[in-house]
User: Fold these one by one.
Assistant:
Number 1:
Amino acid sequence: MNVHLYLPIMRIKDEQKIDAIHEKAVETIVKYGFDGLSMQKLAKAANVSPATIYIYFKDRDDLIQQVATKEAAKMVEASLKGFDATMPFAEGLTIQWKNRAKYWLKHPQQAKFLEQVRHSPVGEEVYSKVKKEFSLVMSEFVKGAVKRRELIKLPIEVYWAVAFAPFYQLVKFHDDGKSMSGQPFKWSDAYMNQTLKLVIKALTP
């Protein structure tokens, strides 16, 4: 009976350790890059022993893969919240922008980490694991909008550049804390809505 009483406590402690390792891995990579991540440095930051890390991860590469895959999955889930592929185009794109903005503003560290992953050697493998469902949903959304004549038919690369590049440029200005002119810049719904309105106008027949 005593064993059953203590098992839940041990499981909670293990999850706390994994969460700490995960969080500090993201922080370390954002601050120092992938080359700046070592098991010794990570163990110290997460307040665990290096041996503890190897209980949950085979090696450094496995750790990066697992952490990146988990964060990418969370981002995709957040971006699809309340979204339906059969929505009218303007409504669906608006939800996409709002969801992405909410994620970036609430999780800036994780968002920066995912940008580093995207442009790293592990990026393709990580995103291939999580983007299949997302790609299917977005493909259905775009094809439906074109069929209903709510969206101009464009190569997917052109559509993506017009539909989302302006959003990420606003995010970059916010992260930098200044605009192209060097003036202070902070994200606002007003900026987002003004930009989104222009994007929808450009993509609508």
Number 2:
Amino acid sequence: MDLEKFFDRVNHDILMARVARRVTDKRVLKLIRAYLEAGMMEGGVCQKTDEGTPQGGPLSPLLANILLDDLDKELTKRGLRFVRYADDCNIFVASRRAGERVMESVTRFVEGKLKLKVNRDKSAVDRPWNRKFLGFSFLSNKQATIRLAPKTISRFKEKIRELTSRTRSISMEERITRLNRYLMGWIGYFRIASAKSHCERFDQWIRRRLRMCLWKQWKRVRTRIRELRALGVPEWACYVMANSRRGAWEMSRNTNNALPTSYWEAKGLKSLLSRYLELC
């Protein structure tokens, strides 16, 4: 179950009533109310906000949990198993029929009591391995093995393509630094998933994309000959490869032996697989 435009639709009065249950200091309540009604800049003009909490604000996630605490208690009271993070919630039941019944009753509770709107397009009754939660999904086995959701893999590849775009004129050192920053953060988050084979394939693919970028940087034939010679490629192979009419992506495969894994390790490129095995 997903809540539609959750941070934009939070009712201030309902939220403040929930906060007042826990906070008795009126100065704090007044400060939170001022935070909610501070408004937003749109086209250089400050627009008043009658509902919602500032997206990206440090207090918004906490206020979201305070408001949705009633939902957690309602699901607990019904004896349902669930997991929730902010406005994204998965409820686990034994059958499709039970799922449809729970979906209908919980939607009435959320929209009636909390005055929020359930996103029908993103919410569904389905098998756990057909859905995703915070970028994760499950394998269809009895061990409930955690896996990477397909959309997570697509987003990862899209980001890597952006960082290794051959049209971006940055040095290889800077490119590797940016890659490492993203890769280590990504694997730190998704380390709980069963992703060993993914990490191995990603490492190979990333190195090939870097070889493509490097070949693109060696624009001239004489530059390619000089660089390949320095890497220990036989003289005849240097001339054949340097004069090839094939594109950079195709040549990235042909330069695999000249630019092996050890070359990129020496350049400081981090390995997803190595980091994954360390964290596991």
